[in-house]
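Hey everyone, long-time lurker, first post.

I ran two proteins through the pipeline my lab uses and got sequence/structure pairs for each. Pasting them in order. The first:
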Amino acid sequence: MRLKLAIEYAGTRYRGWQIQKNARTVAGEMTRAVVEATGIRDFELYGAGRTDAGVHALAQVAHLDLATTLPPETVRRRVNDALPSDIVILSIERVPRRFHARHDAVARSYVYQIARRRTAFAKPFVWWVRDELDPGAMRRTAAAFVGFHDFRAFSDADPEDASTEVHLETMDLHEDGDLLVVHVEGSHFLWKMVRRLVGVLVEVGRGRLGEAEAAALLDGASDLPARLTAPASGLFLERVFYPGDPRDRPLQAAVAVPRADPDSVTSRTSRPESHSKSQPPNPERSR
Protein backbone atom coordinates (compact mmCIF):
# COMPACT_ATOMS: atom_id res chain seq x y z
CA MET A 1 0.00 0.00 0.00
CA ARG A 2 1.05 3.61 -0.50
CA LEU A 3 0.99 5.87 2.54
CA LYS A 4 1.18 9.67 2.64
CA LEU A 5 3.17 10.97 5.59
CA ALA A 6 3.41 14.45 7.10
CA ILE A 7 6.71 14.70 8.95
CA GLU A 8 8.01 17.29 11.40
CA TYR A 9 11.71 17.53 12.11
CA ALA A 10 14.42 19.72 13.54
CA GLY A 11 17.20 19.61 10.98
CA THR A 12 20.01 20.79 13.25
CA ARG A 13 21.67 17.38 13.61
CA TYR A 14 21.15 16.23 10.03
CA ARG A 15 22.81 16.74 6.67
CA GLY A 16 19.46 17.38 5.06
CA TRP A 17 16.63 15.11 3.97
CA GLN A 18 18.20 12.97 1.27
CA ILE A 19 20.08 9.77 2.19
CA GLN A 20 23.85 10.22 1.90
CA LYS A 21 26.79 7.94 2.49
CA ASN A 22 28.64 8.59 5.76
CA ALA A 23 26.18 11.30 6.83
CA ARG A 24 23.18 11.32 9.12
CA THR A 25 20.05 12.46 7.27
CA VAL A 26 16.33 12.62 7.96
CA ALA A 27 15.42 10.12 5.26
CA GLY A 28 18.16 7.84 6.56
CA GLU A 29 16.66 7.89 10.05
CA MET A 30 13.19 7.35 8.60
CA THR A 31 14.42 4.33 6.63
CA ARG A 32 16.09 2.81 9.67
CA ALA A 33 12.98 3.35 11.79
CA VAL A 34 10.66 1.74 9.21
CA VAL A 35 12.85 -1.36 9.11
CA GLU A 36 13.01 -1.52 12.91
CA ALA A 37 9.27 -0.99 13.32
CA THR A 38 8.01 -3.34 10.62
CA GLY A 39 10.83 -5.76 9.83
CA ILE A 40 10.36 -4.90 6.14
CA ARG A 41 13.48 -3.89 4.22
CA ASP A 42 12.14 -3.58 0.69
CA PHE A 43 10.11 -0.37 0.44
CA GLU A 44 10.16 3.08 -1.18
CA LEU A 45 10.31 6.32 0.79
CA TYR A 46 10.11 9.45 -1.37
CA GLY A 47 10.03 13.01 -0.07
CA ALA A 48 8.29 16.01 -1.60
CA GLY A 49 11.61 17.85 -1.71
CA ARG A 50 15.12 17.93 -0.36
CA THR A 51 15.84 20.20 2.56
CA ASP A 52 19.47 21.20 3.03
CA ALA A 53 21.69 20.53 6.03
CA GLY A 54 20.35 22.24 9.13
CA VAL A 55 16.97 23.16 7.59
CA HIS A 56 13.82 22.16 9.51
CA ALA A 57 10.33 21.07 8.48
CA LEU A 58 6.94 21.76 10.00
CA ALA A 59 5.19 19.37 7.61
CA GLN A 60 7.42 17.68 5.07
CA VAL A 61 5.42 15.26 2.93
CA ALA A 62 6.62 11.84 1.81
CA HIS A 63 5.05 8.74 0.37
CA LEU A 64 5.90 5.30 1.66
CA ASP A 65 5.24 2.10 -0.30
CA LEU A 66 5.03 -0.68 2.27
CA ALA A 67 3.81 -4.27 1.81
CA THR A 68 2.10 -4.74 5.15
CA THR A 69 -1.32 -5.56 6.61
CA LEU A 70 -0.76 -3.23 9.56
CA PRO A 71 -3.24 -0.34 9.80
CA PRO A 72 -1.68 3.02 8.86
CA GLU A 73 -2.05 4.41 12.40
CA THR A 74 -0.22 1.39 13.82
CA VAL A 75 2.60 1.99 11.33
CA ARG A 76 2.77 5.64 12.42
CA ARG A 77 2.97 4.81 16.13
CA ARG A 78 5.56 2.07 15.68
CA VAL A 79 7.80 4.12 13.39
CA ASN A 80 7.56 7.13 15.73
CA ASP A 81 8.67 4.91 18.62
CA ALA A 82 11.78 3.99 16.60
CA LEU A 83 12.59 7.55 15.51
CA PRO A 84 14.82 10.00 17.40
CA SER A 85 12.97 12.70 19.31
CA ASP A 86 13.67 15.39 16.69
CA ILE A 87 11.74 13.59 13.93
CA VAL A 88 7.98 12.93 14.23
CA ILE A 89 5.38 11.57 11.82
CA LEU A 90 2.46 13.91 12.43
CA SER A 91 -0.10 12.12 10.27
CA ILE A 92 -0.43 9.15 7.98
CA GLU A 93 -3.07 8.13 5.46
CA ARG A 94 -3.53 5.57 2.75
CA VAL A 95 -3.52 7.09 -0.75
CA PRO A 96 -3.90 5.77 -4.31
CA ARG A 97 -0.80 4.24 -5.88
CA ARG A 98 -0.73 7.06 -8.43
CA PHE A 99 -0.08 9.67 -5.71
CA HIS A 100 3.50 10.98 -5.77
CA ALA A 101 4.78 13.21 -2.97
CA ARG A 102 6.97 15.30 -5.26
CA HIS A 103 5.40 15.19 -8.69
CA ASP A 104 1.85 15.91 -7.50
CA ALA A 105 2.80 18.95 -5.40
CA VAL A 106 1.46 22.22 -6.80
CA ALA A 107 3.16 24.65 -4.40
CA ARG A 108 5.35 24.88 -1.34
CA SER A 109 5.75 27.40 1.44
CA TYR A 110 8.61 28.24 3.79
CA VAL A 111 9.01 30.40 6.85
CA TYR A 112 12.26 32.00 7.96
CA GLN A 113 12.74 33.30 11.49
CA ILE A 114 14.94 36.29 12.32
CA ALA A 115 15.55 37.10 15.98
CA ARG A 116 16.09 40.73 16.92
CA ARG A 117 17.59 39.82 20.25
CA ARG A 118 19.94 37.16 21.55
CA THR A 119 17.99 34.14 22.79
CA ALA A 120 19.17 31.27 24.97
CA PHE A 121 16.34 28.98 23.89
CA ALA A 122 15.68 29.41 20.17
CA LYS A 123 19.23 29.71 18.80
CA PRO A 124 19.00 26.54 16.60
CA PHE A 125 15.80 27.87 15.00
CA VAL A 126 16.54 31.53 14.26
CA TRP A 127 19.08 33.85 12.72
CA TRP A 128 19.99 36.41 15.34
CA VAL A 129 20.71 39.72 13.61
CA ARG A 130 22.41 42.17 15.97
CA ASP A 131 21.83 45.24 13.79
CA GLU A 132 18.72 47.39 13.87
CA LEU A 133 16.39 46.39 11.01
CA ASP A 134 13.82 48.40 9.08
CA PRO A 135 10.79 46.09 8.61
CA GLY A 136 9.10 48.57 6.27
CA ALA A 137 11.99 48.52 3.79
CA MET A 138 12.14 44.73 4.04
CA ARG A 139 8.41 44.44 3.29
CA ARG A 140 8.66 46.67 0.24
CA THR A 141 11.60 44.68 -1.09
CA ALA A 142 9.77 41.39 -0.49
CA ALA A 143 6.80 42.72 -2.47
CA ALA A 144 9.10 43.49 -5.41
CA PHE A 145 10.16 39.83 -5.57
CA VAL A 146 6.58 38.54 -5.89
CA GLY A 147 5.58 37.38 -9.35
CA PHE A 148 7.13 35.36 -12.17
CA HIS A 149 10.84 36.16 -12.34
CA ASP A 150 14.22 34.71 -13.22
CA PHE A 151 15.85 34.01 -9.85
CA ARG A 152 19.19 32.83 -11.24
CA ALA A 153 21.04 35.30 -8.98
CA PHE A 154 19.48 33.65 -5.94
CA SER A 155 20.54 30.07 -6.65
CA ASP A 156 23.54 27.93 -7.50
CA ALA A 157 21.42 26.22 -10.16
CA ASP A 158 22.78 26.48 -13.70
CA PRO A 159 20.18 28.03 -16.03
CA GLU A 160 21.74 26.00 -18.85
CA ASP A 161 20.73 22.79 -17.08
CA ALA A 162 17.27 23.80 -15.87
CA SER A 163 15.05 26.86 -15.82
CA THR A 164 15.69 29.35 -13.04
CA GLU A 165 12.30 31.02 -13.52
CA VAL A 166 9.96 30.72 -10.54
CA HIS A 167 6.47 32.01 -9.81
CA LEU A 168 6.77 33.47 -6.31
CA GLU A 169 3.16 33.75 -5.18
CA THR A 170 3.63 35.52 -1.86
CA MET A 171 6.48 36.93 0.22
CA ASP A 172 5.40 38.55 3.47
CA LEU A 173 7.12 39.81 6.60
CA HIS A 174 5.36 39.55 9.97
CA GLU A 175 6.46 40.90 13.35
CA ASP A 176 5.91 38.88 16.51
CA GLY A 177 7.66 40.55 19.43
CA ASP A 178 11.40 40.15 18.96
CA LEU A 179 10.82 37.81 16.03
CA LEU A 180 10.55 38.67 12.33
CA VAL A 181 8.91 35.89 10.35
CA VAL A 182 9.38 35.83 6.57
CA HIS A 183 6.79 33.74 4.74
CA VAL A 184 7.24 32.70 1.10
CA GLU A 185 5.02 30.57 -1.08
CA GLY A 186 5.57 29.57 -4.67
CA SER A 187 5.31 26.98 -7.39
CA HIS A 188 8.73 25.61 -6.50
CA PHE A 189 12.04 26.89 -5.18
CA LEU A 190 15.60 26.73 -6.46
CA TRP A 191 18.52 25.44 -4.40
CA LYS A 192 19.35 28.02 -1.68
CA MET A 193 16.83 30.48 -3.13
CA VAL A 194 14.87 31.18 0.06
CA ARG A 195 17.96 31.71 2.22
CA ARG A 196 19.38 34.16 -0.33
CA LEU A 197 16.11 36.05 -0.61
CA VAL A 198 16.13 36.43 3.18
CA GLY A 199 19.79 37.44 3.17
CA VAL A 200 19.02 40.24 0.71
CA LEU A 201 16.01 41.35 2.78
CA VAL A 202 18.18 41.62 5.89
CA GLU A 203 20.82 43.61 4.02
CA VAL A 204 18.09 46.03 2.95
CA GLY A 205 16.76 46.13 6.51
CA ARG A 206 20.24 47.04 7.77
CA GLY A 207 20.41 49.90 5.29
CA ARG A 208 23.44 48.47 3.49
CA LEU A 209 21.56 47.71 0.27
CA GLY A 210 18.99 49.94 -1.40
CA GLU A 211 15.52 48.70 -2.26
CA ALA A 212 16.02 49.46 -5.95
CA GLU A 213 19.39 47.66 -5.91
CA ALA A 214 17.73 44.58 -4.42
CA ALA A 215 14.95 44.58 -7.00
CA ALA A 216 17.54 44.93 -9.78
CA LEU A 217 18.98 41.55 -8.82
CA LEU A 218 16.08 40.01 -10.73
CA ASP A 219 17.52 41.38 -13.98
CA GLY A 220 20.19 38.75 -14.38
CA ALA A 221 23.25 37.07 -12.89
CA SER A 222 24.89 38.45 -9.74
CA ASP A 223 27.11 36.98 -7.05
CA LEU A 224 25.73 39.32 -4.37
CA PRO A 225 22.92 37.05 -3.05
CA ALA A 226 25.38 34.18 -2.68
CA ARG A 227 27.51 36.36 -0.38
CA LEU A 228 24.42 37.21 1.68
CA THR A 229 23.03 33.68 2.14
CA ALA A 230 21.13 33.45 5.43
CA PRO A 231 22.08 30.58 7.77
CA ALA A 232 20.10 27.34 7.61
CA SER A 233 19.05 27.54 11.27
CA GLY A 234 16.13 29.91 10.66
CA LEU A 235 14.56 28.10 7.70
CA PHE A 236 11.51 25.81 7.91
CA LEU A 237 9.70 24.00 5.14
CA GLU A 238 6.20 24.99 6.20
CA ARG A 239 3.79 23.14 3.91
CA VAL A 240 3.57 21.20 0.66
CA PHE A 241 0.32 21.80 -1.22
CA TYR A 242 -1.57 19.36 -3.43
CA PRO A 243 -4.63 19.91 -5.64
CA GLY A 244 -7.61 20.83 -3.47
CA ASP A 245 -5.57 21.74 -0.37
CA PRO A 246 -6.69 24.95 1.42
CA ARG A 247 -4.23 27.81 0.98
CA ASP A 248 -5.56 30.26 3.59
CA ARG A 249 -4.50 28.72 6.90
CA PRO A 250 -3.06 31.19 9.43
CA LEU A 251 0.67 31.73 9.64
CA GLN A 252 2.32 31.04 12.99
CA ALA A 253 5.87 31.38 14.19
CA ALA A 254 7.55 27.98 14.03
CA VAL A 255 9.42 28.39 17.33
CA ALA A 256 8.63 31.40 19.48
CA VAL A 257 11.25 33.69 20.96
CA PRO A 258 10.17 34.56 24.52
CA ARG A 259 9.62 38.26 25.04
CA ALA A 260 12.55 39.96 26.73
CA ASP A 261 12.28 41.61 30.15
CA PRO A 262 11.16 45.20 29.45
CA ASP A 263 13.86 46.48 31.82
CA SER A 264 16.61 44.44 30.15
CA VAL A 265 19.30 46.25 28.17
CA THR A 266 18.51 43.92 25.26
CA SER A 267 14.82 44.80 25.35
CA ARG A 268 13.32 46.31 22.22
CA THR A 269 12.14 49.25 24.35
CA SER A 270 15.66 50.59 24.04
CA ARG A 271 15.29 50.76 20.26
CA PRO A 272 13.86 53.61 18.20
CA GLU A 273 10.20 54.39 18.90
CA SER A 274 9.18 53.46 15.36
CA HIS A 275 10.29 49.90 16.05
CA SER A 276 9.34 49.60 19.70
CA LYS A 277 5.87 48.20 19.14
CA SER A 278 5.51 44.90 17.35
CA GLN A 279 2.62 43.65 15.30
CA PRO A 280 1.39 40.06 15.59
CA PRO A 281 1.52 37.81 12.53
CA ASN A 282 -1.32 38.43 10.10
CA PRO A 283 -3.89 35.72 10.97
CA GLU A 284 -5.06 35.38 7.37
CA ARG A 285 -3.09 35.69 4.14
CA SER A 286 -5.08 37.17 1.29
CA ARG A 287 -4.44 35.42 -1.99
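...and the second, right after it:
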Amino acid sequence: MTIETVLLWVAVLIFVSVVSSKLSDKFGIPVLLIFLTIGMLAGSEGIGGIYFDDARIAKSVGVVALIFIIFSGGLNTNWKETKSIILPGAILSTAGVLMTAIFTGFFAVYILKFSLLEGMLLGSIVSSTDAPAVFSVLRSRRISLKQPLKPLLEFESGSNDPMAIFLTAGFISILTVKDMGIVALIPRFLLDMSVGALIGYLMARFIVLFINRLRLEYEGLYPVIMISLVLLTYVIAVFLKGNGILAVYFAGLMLGKAEFPNKKMLVKFHDGLAWLAQIVMFITLGLLVFPSHIVPQIGAGFFSDISANGGCPPCQRVVMSLAF
Protein backbone atom coordinates (compact mmCIF):
# COMPACT_ATOMS: atom_id res chain seq x y z
CA MET A 1 0.00 0.00 0.00
CA THR A 2 1.06 3.59 -0.62
CA ILE A 3 1.14 5.98 2.33
CA GLU A 4 -1.95 7.69 0.92
CA THR A 5 -3.86 4.40 0.92
CA VAL A 6 -2.79 3.67 4.50
CA LEU A 7 -3.87 7.15 5.62
CA LEU A 8 -7.19 6.69 3.82
CA TRP A 9 -7.90 3.45 5.67
CA VAL A 10 -6.83 4.97 9.01
CA ALA A 11 -9.09 7.98 8.47
CA VAL A 12 -12.06 5.87 7.36
CA LEU A 13 -11.78 3.35 10.20
CA ILE A 14 -11.45 6.04 12.89
CA PHE A 15 -14.31 8.06 11.34
CA VAL A 16 -16.61 5.02 11.14
CA SER A 17 -15.70 4.00 14.70
CA VAL A 18 -16.52 7.41 16.17
CA VAL A 19 -19.78 7.75 14.23
CA SER A 20 -20.77 4.16 15.07
CA SER A 21 -20.38 4.92 18.77
CA LYS A 22 -23.81 6.56 18.50
CA LEU A 23 -25.21 3.02 18.21
CA SER A 24 -23.99 2.39 21.75
CA ASP A 25 -26.10 5.26 23.11
CA LYS A 26 -29.15 4.36 21.04
CA PHE A 27 -29.25 0.57 21.33
CA GLY A 28 -27.08 -0.11 24.37
CA ILE A 29 -24.41 -1.98 22.38
CA PRO A 30 -20.98 -1.95 24.10
CA VAL A 31 -18.95 0.61 22.17
CA LEU A 32 -15.76 -1.46 22.29
CA LEU A 33 -17.61 -4.39 20.73
CA ILE A 34 -18.51 -2.01 17.88
CA PHE A 35 -14.85 -1.10 17.40
CA LEU A 36 -13.88 -4.78 17.41
CA THR A 37 -16.58 -5.58 14.83
CA ILE A 38 -15.41 -2.75 12.57
CA GLY A 39 -11.91 -4.23 12.68
CA MET A 40 -13.23 -7.68 11.80
CA LEU A 41 -15.28 -6.27 8.90
CA ALA A 42 -12.19 -4.47 7.61
CA GLY A 43 -10.08 -7.63 7.91
CA SER A 44 -9.05 -10.20 5.35
CA GLU A 45 -12.31 -12.17 5.68
CA GLY A 46 -14.47 -9.04 5.79
CA ILE A 47 -15.51 -6.44 3.26
CA GLY A 48 -12.29 -4.44 3.71
CA GLY A 49 -9.98 -7.27 2.71
CA ILE A 50 -7.06 -5.97 4.80
CA TYR A 51 -4.77 -8.91 5.56
CA PHE A 52 -3.23 -8.66 9.02
CA ASP A 53 -1.74 -11.65 10.83
CA ASP A 54 1.06 -10.27 12.99
CA ALA A 55 0.43 -10.94 16.67
CA ARG A 56 3.67 -9.16 17.66
CA ILE A 57 2.55 -5.88 16.11
CA ALA A 58 -0.89 -6.32 17.67
CA LYS A 59 0.75 -6.85 21.08
CA SER A 60 2.88 -3.71 20.69
CA VAL A 61 -0.13 -1.64 19.66
CA GLY A 62 -2.10 -3.05 22.60
CA VAL A 63 0.63 -2.27 25.14
CA VAL A 64 1.00 1.35 24.01
CA ALA A 65 -2.77 1.81 23.88
CA LEU A 66 -3.26 0.25 27.31
CA ILE A 67 -0.66 2.58 28.84
CA PHE A 68 -2.68 5.66 27.93
CA ILE A 69 -6.07 4.05 28.61
CA ILE A 70 -5.02 3.00 32.12
CA PHE A 71 -3.33 6.36 32.82
CA SER A 72 -6.45 8.25 31.77
CA GLY A 73 -8.58 5.95 33.91
CA GLY A 74 -6.46 6.74 36.95
CA LEU A 75 -6.35 10.45 36.15
CA ASN A 76 -10.16 10.64 35.90
CA THR A 77 -10.76 8.68 39.10
CA ASN A 78 -12.23 10.65 41.98
CA TRP A 79 -9.71 10.22 44.80
CA LYS A 80 -12.15 11.25 47.53
CA GLU A 81 -14.45 8.40 46.53
CA THR A 82 -11.63 5.93 45.92
CA LYS A 83 -9.47 6.25 49.03
CA SER A 84 -12.07 4.54 51.23
CA ILE A 85 -12.25 1.43 49.02
CA ILE A 86 -8.54 0.89 48.26
CA LEU A 87 -8.25 -2.19 50.50
CA PRO A 88 -11.31 -4.09 49.17
CA GLY A 89 -10.39 -2.97 45.65
CA ALA A 90 -6.86 -4.32 46.04
CA ILE A 91 -8.22 -7.63 47.33
CA LEU A 92 -10.57 -7.92 44.37
CA SER A 93 -7.86 -7.03 41.85
CA THR A 94 -5.44 -9.64 43.23
CA ALA A 95 -7.17 -12.45 45.13
CA GLY A 96 -10.32 -12.05 43.03
CA VAL A 97 -8.37 -12.38 39.79
CA LEU A 98 -6.46 -15.38 41.19
CA MET A 99 -9.68 -17.15 42.23
CA THR A 100 -11.25 -16.51 38.82
CA ALA A 101 -8.14 -17.87 37.09
CA ILE A 102 -8.17 -21.02 39.25
CA PHE A 103 -11.92 -21.61 38.78
CA THR A 104 -11.67 -21.18 35.00
CA GLY A 105 -8.50 -23.28 34.92
CA PHE A 106 -10.19 -26.27 36.58
CA PHE A 107 -13.15 -25.83 34.23
CA ALA A 108 -10.75 -26.06 31.26
CA VAL A 109 -9.14 -29.16 32.77
CA TYR A 110 -12.32 -31.13 33.48
CA ILE A 111 -14.60 -29.91 30.70
CA LEU A 112 -12.27 -28.89 27.85
CA LYS A 113 -9.68 -31.59 28.67
CA PHE A 114 -6.68 -29.26 29.01
CA SER A 115 -3.67 -30.21 31.11
CA LEU A 116 -3.56 -28.53 34.54
CA LEU A 117 -0.94 -25.92 33.60
CA GLU A 118 -2.60 -25.21 30.25
CA GLY A 119 -5.92 -24.77 32.04
CA MET A 120 -4.38 -22.34 34.52
CA LEU A 121 -2.82 -20.40 31.66
CA LEU A 122 -6.20 -20.12 29.97
CA GLY A 123 -7.78 -19.09 33.28
CA SER A 124 -5.12 -16.40 33.73
CA ILE A 125 -5.78 -14.98 30.26
CA VAL A 126 -9.51 -14.53 30.92
CA SER A 127 -9.30 -13.72 34.63
CA SER A 128 -9.44 -9.92 34.62
CA THR A 129 -12.16 -7.53 33.58
CA ASP A 130 -11.31 -5.18 30.74
CA ALA A 131 -10.48 -1.69 32.01
CA PRO A 132 -11.45 0.18 28.79
CA ALA A 133 -14.82 -1.58 28.72
CA VAL A 134 -15.54 -0.96 32.41
CA PHE A 135 -14.49 2.70 32.27
CA SER A 136 -16.59 3.39 29.17
CA VAL A 137 -19.67 1.68 30.66
CA LEU A 138 -19.44 3.14 34.17
CA ARG A 139 -18.84 6.66 32.88
CA SER A 140 -21.78 6.48 30.50
CA ARG A 141 -24.43 9.10 31.09
CA ARG A 142 -27.02 6.33 31.53
CA ILE A 143 -25.18 4.55 34.34
CA SER A 144 -25.82 5.60 37.93
CA LEU A 145 -24.55 3.29 40.68
CA LYS A 146 -24.71 3.75 44.42
CA GLN A 147 -21.56 4.46 46.38
CA PRO A 148 -19.13 2.83 46.88
CA LEU A 149 -19.86 0.37 44.05
CA LYS A 150 -18.83 2.62 41.15
CA PRO A 151 -15.40 3.70 42.50
CA LEU A 152 -14.79 0.12 43.68
CA LEU A 153 -15.43 -1.26 40.19
CA GLU A 154 -13.33 1.46 38.57
CA PHE A 155 -10.41 0.88 40.94
CA GLU A 156 -10.60 -2.90 40.54
CA SER A 157 -10.77 -2.77 36.74
CA GLY A 158 -7.90 -0.29 36.56
CA SER A 159 -5.63 -2.28 38.86
CA ASN A 160 -6.40 -5.93 37.99
CA ASP A 161 -4.53 -6.12 34.68
CA PRO A 162 -1.12 -6.35 36.42
CA MET A 163 -2.27 -9.47 38.29
CA ALA A 164 -3.62 -11.09 35.12
CA ILE A 165 -0.45 -10.21 33.20
CA PHE A 166 1.70 -11.60 36.00
CA LEU A 167 -0.26 -14.88 36.16
CA THR A 168 -0.20 -15.28 32.38
CA ALA A 169 3.54 -14.63 32.13
CA GLY A 170 4.16 -16.86 35.15
CA PHE A 171 2.32 -19.90 33.79
CA ILE A 172 3.95 -19.43 30.38
CA SER A 173 7.34 -19.53 32.16
CA ILE A 174 6.37 -22.69 34.04
CA LEU A 175 5.25 -24.33 30.79
CA THR A 176 8.39 -23.36 28.88
CA VAL A 177 11.17 -23.36 31.52
CA LYS A 178 12.34 -26.74 32.80
CA ASP A 179 12.10 -27.45 36.55
CA MET A 180 10.37 -24.16 37.38
CA GLY A 181 7.64 -24.43 40.01
CA ILE A 182 4.76 -22.26 41.16
CA VAL A 183 6.62 -21.35 44.38
CA ALA A 184 9.20 -19.50 42.28
CA LEU A 185 6.48 -17.07 41.22
CA ILE A 186 5.92 -15.70 44.75
CA PRO A 187 9.06 -13.49 44.97
CA ARG A 188 8.49 -12.40 41.38
CA PHE A 189 4.94 -11.37 42.30
CA LEU A 190 6.06 -9.33 45.31
CA LEU A 191 8.78 -7.60 43.29
CA ASP A 192 6.48 -7.00 40.32
CA MET A 193 3.70 -5.34 42.31
CA SER A 194 5.77 -3.45 44.88
CA VAL A 195 8.15 -1.93 42.34
CA GLY A 196 5.28 -1.02 40.01
CA ALA A 197 3.33 0.75 42.78
CA LEU A 198 6.45 2.50 44.12
CA ILE A 199 7.56 3.77 40.70
CA GLY A 200 4.05 5.02 39.96
CA TYR A 201 3.94 6.94 43.25
CA LEU A 202 7.43 8.40 42.88
CA MET A 203 6.90 9.40 39.24
CA ALA A 204 3.64 11.12 40.15
CA ARG A 205 5.45 13.18 42.79
CA PHE A 206 8.19 13.99 40.28
CA ILE A 207 5.72 14.96 37.55
CA VAL A 208 3.88 17.38 39.84
CA LEU A 209 7.13 19.07 40.95
CA PHE A 210 8.47 19.14 37.40
CA ILE A 211 5.32 20.56 35.79
CA ASN A 212 4.92 23.18 38.51
CA ARG A 213 8.44 24.44 37.89
CA LEU A 214 8.56 24.04 34.12
CA ARG A 215 6.38 27.03 33.16
CA LEU A 216 6.23 26.43 29.41
CA GLU A 217 5.41 29.43 27.24
CA TYR A 218 3.21 27.36 24.90
CA GLU A 219 0.25 25.52 26.43
CA GLY A 220 0.25 23.04 23.56
CA LEU A 221 3.53 21.61 24.83
CA TYR A 222 2.07 20.45 28.16
CA PRO A 223 0.28 17.43 26.62
CA VAL A 224 3.46 16.58 24.73
CA ILE A 225 5.64 16.56 27.84
CA MET A 226 2.98 14.59 29.72
CA ILE A 227 2.96 11.89 27.03
CA SER A 228 6.72 11.50 27.43
CA LEU A 229 6.44 11.30 31.23
CA VAL A 230 3.70 8.65 31.08
CA LEU A 231 5.80 6.50 28.74
CA LEU A 232 8.84 7.09 30.96
CA THR A 233 6.87 5.87 33.99
CA TYR A 234 6.01 2.61 32.24
CA VAL A 235 9.54 2.01 30.92
CA ILE A 236 11.31 2.74 34.23
CA ALA A 237 9.01 0.31 36.06
CA VAL A 238 9.60 -2.43 33.47
CA PHE A 239 13.38 -1.91 33.46
CA LEU A 240 13.40 -2.23 37.26
CA LYS A 241 11.47 -5.54 37.04
CA GLY A 242 8.20 -3.97 38.15
CA ASN A 243 4.75 -3.89 36.59
CA GLY A 244 4.58 -0.99 34.15
CA ILE A 245 0.79 -0.98 33.84
CA LEU A 246 0.37 -0.77 37.62
CA ALA A 247 2.94 2.06 37.73
CA VAL A 248 1.06 4.03 35.09
CA TYR A 249 -2.28 3.54 36.87
CA PHE A 250 -0.88 4.63 40.24
CA ALA A 251 0.77 7.65 38.62
CA GLY A 252 -2.56 8.67 37.06
CA LEU A 253 -4.38 8.09 40.34
CA MET A 254 -1.91 10.27 42.29
CA LEU A 255 -1.95 13.01 39.64
CA GLY A 256 -5.75 13.01 39.73
CA LYS A 257 -5.72 14.37 43.29
CA ALA A 258 -2.78 16.77 42.75
CA GLU A 259 -2.79 20.35 41.48
CA PHE A 260 -0.59 21.49 38.61
CA PRO A 261 -0.78 23.95 35.68
CA ASN A 262 -3.30 23.23 32.90
CA LYS A 263 -4.69 20.19 34.73
CA LYS A 264 -8.21 20.47 33.25
CA MET A 265 -6.80 20.72 29.74
CA LEU A 266 -4.50 17.75 30.31
CA VAL A 267 -7.34 15.63 31.72
CA LYS A 268 -9.48 16.35 28.63
CA PHE A 269 -6.52 15.70 26.32
CA HIS A 270 -5.80 12.30 27.88
CA ASP A 271 -9.48 11.42 27.80
CA GLY A 272 -9.48 11.99 24.04
CA LEU A 273 -6.16 10.15 23.69
CA ALA A 274 -7.59 7.20 25.63
CA TRP A 275 -10.56 7.02 23.27
CA LEU A 276 -8.23 7.06 20.26
CA ALA A 277 -6.14 4.32 21.90
CA GLN A 278 -9.25 2.19 22.46
CA ILE A 279 -10.33 2.59 18.84
CA VAL A 280 -6.88 1.70 17.50
CA MET A 281 -6.43 -1.25 19.87
CA PHE A 282 -9.80 -2.89 19.23
CA ILE A 283 -9.67 -2.32 15.48
CA THR A 284 -6.21 -3.93 15.47
CA LEU A 285 -7.56 -6.89 17.45
CA GLY A 286 -10.47 -7.12 15.04
CA LEU A 287 -8.10 -7.20 12.07
CA LEU A 288 -6.21 -10.01 13.78
CA VAL A 289 -9.33 -12.19 13.91
CA PHE A 290 -10.07 -14.77 11.22
CA PRO A 291 -13.75 -15.66 11.78
CA SER A 292 -13.36 -18.96 9.94
CA HIS A 293 -10.80 -20.04 12.56
CA ILE A 294 -13.02 -19.04 15.48
CA VAL A 295 -16.33 -20.64 14.45
CA PRO A 296 -15.25 -24.24 15.29
CA GLN A 297 -14.26 -23.09 18.79
CA ILE A 298 -17.28 -20.94 19.65
CA GLY A 299 -18.70 -23.53 22.05
CA ALA A 300 -15.51 -23.92 24.10
CA GLY A 301 -14.91 -20.19 24.12
CA PHE A 302 -18.49 -19.44 25.17
CA PHE A 303 -18.46 -21.86 28.11
CA SER A 304 -15.01 -20.66 29.20
CA ASP A 305 -16.42 -17.12 29.23
CA ILE A 306 -19.29 -18.22 31.46
CA SER A 307 -16.93 -20.05 33.82
CA ALA A 308 -14.94 -16.82 34.21
CA ASN A 309 -18.10 -15.03 35.41
CA GLY A 310 -18.13 -12.71 32.46
CA GLY A 311 -14.50 -11.70 32.95
CA CYS A 312 -13.45 -12.32 29.36
CA PRO A 313 -13.46 -9.03 27.45
CA PRO A 314 -13.39 -8.84 23.65
CA CYS A 315 -9.62 -8.58 23.44
CA GLN A 316 -9.14 -11.59 25.70
CA ARG A 317 -11.65 -13.58 23.64
CA VAL A 318 -9.43 -12.93 20.62
CA VAL A 319 -6.38 -14.21 22.48
CA MET A 320 -8.29 -17.26 23.70
CA SER A 321 -9.63 -18.05 20.24
CA LEU A 322 -6.17 -17.73 18.69
CA ALA A 323 -4.73 -19.97 21.40
CA PHE A 324 -7.25 -22.69 20.50
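Reply from user beta_strand_b:
Welcome! Quick read of the second one: The mean pLDDT is 82. The CA atoms of residues 61 and 138 lie 25 Å apart.
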